[in-house]
């Protein structure tokens, strides 16, 4: 068995593009610049059916496999689906199957069987339609690992954007940003930039919540009452925090050059600009977990499922990042 770290890749919603993106991984056997072993978690019948539909010549090999990686061969840890899957057609009967994929990858990461996990997209709506509360991988993994505070960060190229709040209605965001929650988020972000990215003294750009960062209180006072006091407190401990900054200028090159990552106050404030700049190559990283987890930065793309037109770039990038983080965890060398 290779000494390279083993990355578990969950194939996600079976009616979406996840299975066919995973099939593309057969193009990436062990490579000197990619020191990781991949194992896809999914139903072999689902993967085989998608390969036939696309005319993909991929051999599915049962995991664990003693033979080395080969071009055109995909190592698969079989997890049985609950219902037949049709590309583009969601079925709540497979909701628990999608969660079993996540659970199995998580268990392997916790036990040391896997060095990291990378996830293809799940569909939040269909899981909730099945009667299972689910707001996303980030929150699900936090609950499963009993992690008090996790931070969602999306990254691409040299741009990294973390979120103070994640999947919340906009009307609920101000109340969710408290001094306590913001302090916890910044502590996790600083610690994980050191441990997972190898940046010893990270510079973090922090957005304000309101237009123009509140305009001195005329457009909202959260910057004055919540954000600025926490930044001042943590700066006193040596953290390099810049802000609160107006979000409409935070993504300009002169401002970006001052930081290693950004903290946005809510989902669309940070991710609209990031996805414009990196879509197709961006990734999602969950910070604060006791394991390494990366993901694609897009959804299930039901309209592309089964067409062969889905771009695997984000999944490739997520796996690359997971491998670099696993290497850093093993050797302590700089990951980024």
Describe this protein's structure:
- With 336 residues, this protein is α/β, with parallel strands linked by helices.
- It folds into 2 domains: 195 residues, 3-Layer(aba) Sandwich (Isopropylmalate Dehydrogenase), CATH 3.40.718.10; 139 residues, Isopropylmalate Dehydrogenase (3-Layer(aba) Sandwich), CATH 3.40.718.
- It has 12 helices and 12 strands.
- It has a 12-stranded mixed β-sheet, sandwiched between helices.
- α8 links the parallel β8 and β9.
- The longest helix is centred in the C-terminal third of the chain and has 19 residues.
- The chain is globular, with a radius of gyration of 20 Å.
- The two termini are 27 Å apart.
- The relative contact order is 0.17.
- The mean pLDDT is 93.
| Rg over CA atoms | 20 Å
Count of spatially separate domains: 2
Query: Percentage of helical residues?
Result: 25-40%
The beta-strand count equals 12
Q: What would CATH call the class of the largest domain?
A: Alpha Beta
The unreliable regions are none
Ends apart, CA distance between termini: 27 Å
So, the CATH homologous superfamily of the largest domain? Isopropylmalate Dehydrogenase
Strand order of the largest sheet: 3-4-2-1-5-12-11-6-7-10-8-9
CATH topology of the largest domain: Isopropylmalate Dehydrogenase
Estimated share of beta-strand residues: 15-25%
Instruction: Report the major sheet.
Output: 12 strands, mixed
Number of helices: 12
H/E element sequence: EHEHEEHEHHEEHHEHEHHEHEEH
Q: Classify the secondary structure makeup into a structural class.
A: alpha/beta
Q: In the CATH hierarchy, what is the architecture of the largest domain at level 2?
A: 3-Layer(aba) Sandwich
Mean pLDDT: 93
- Identify the overall geometry: globular
